Amino acid sequence: AKMLAGTPVDQAVGVLALTLHGAQGLKNTDNFAGTVDPYASISFSRRQELARTKTIEDNANPRWNETHYLIVTSFNDTLDIQVFDKNEFRKSKELGVATFRLEDLEELNVHENERLEVIGDGKARGVVSCDLRFFPVLESKTLPDGKVEPAPESNQGILRFTVEQAKDLDGTKSLVGLLNPYAVMLLNGKIVHQTKILKRTNNPIWDNGSKEILITDRRKAKLGVTIKDDRGLISDPSLGMYQIKLDEILDCMAQGK
Questions:
Q1: What region holds the C2 domain (predicted)?
Q2: Residue 135: beta bridge partners?
Q3: CATH number at residue 44
């Protein structure tokens, strides 16, 4: 585990706090579709969804007033805010997307009262209003006398949570003595990542067991790992669970353990 303060996480350059105030003048792409029930989906460069606002029903000028924290790994990406018209019975319709270049955060960390135009099918479909605040990874500094000043302590940061392998799992309850294990990783009791399932092994080594997560309160953070056996059931049996406070892990790392 690595925290933002002390040892920077590989790839991550910082955290973006995006406050979405709302949108104004949203227009439906279909003139006969009636009023909109808008929500916003947030991503970098239109890849996987990182966050989503609540839906405001029957309102072309929604007020979301939500803040979402996003881990930034490259200033070459764009922040994309896709605005959708929610539909309960069929796929929600995209009204358009508002875009912000992350490279603009590199020189100026705070952008307040931004008004980003929502573009759909080459036409203006409204405006999104938001604030952006970028918090770079804290790093140690080399002083003029050559001494290294460590990064300041922080209660918030980015954590890389990794589960590499498990050994000698109990396969006695399997008909063939071999398991189909996978790991479920938790932060404060909530699932943050799940490894892939490995077939017929009691000594799994996972190559996708890493997840970068945002820690908003280090002192209260508790990490957990549950190893399960995939049996194609609604609820797979648990082989074991481990839980530990994040502060305890960081203390052990500081002591070289």
A1: 1-118, 144-257
A2: 15
A3: 2.60.40.150
Q: Taking 90 as the threshold, does the pLDDT of residue 32 lie above it?
A: no
Query: Based on C-alpha coordinates, what's the Rg of the chain?
Result: 22
What is the three-class DSSP state of 16? Answer: strand
Looking at the structure, do residues 235 and 165 belong to the same domain, yes or no?
Answer: yes
Cα 133 from Cα 223, distance rounded (Å): 27
How far apart are alpha carbons 215 and 97 in whole angstroms? 29
Residue 148 in any domain: the answer is no
Please report, for residues 61, 141, 154, 172, the alpha-carbon distance to residue 150 in angstroms, rounded to integers and kept in the order given. 47, 7, 12, 49
Model confidence at 188: pLDDT above 50 = yes
Token pair recorded at residue 199 = 């077939």
Comparing C-alpha atoms, which of 26, 118, 20 is closest to residue 63? 20
Average pLDDT score over residue span 137-157? 78
pTM equals 0.66
Query: CA-to-CA distance for 114 and 129, rounded, in angstroms?
Result: 6
Residue 136's DSSP bridge partners are 14
Q: Whole-angstrom distance between the N-terminal and C-terminal Cα of the chain?
A: 12
Query: How far is it, in rounded angstroms, from Cα 43 to Cα 81?
Result: 7
Which of 211, 222, 223 lies closest to 164, judged by CA? 211
By residue range, what is the domain housing residue 195?
A: 157-255
- In the 8-state DSSP scheme, what is residue 244? E
Specify the pLDDT at position 7.
41
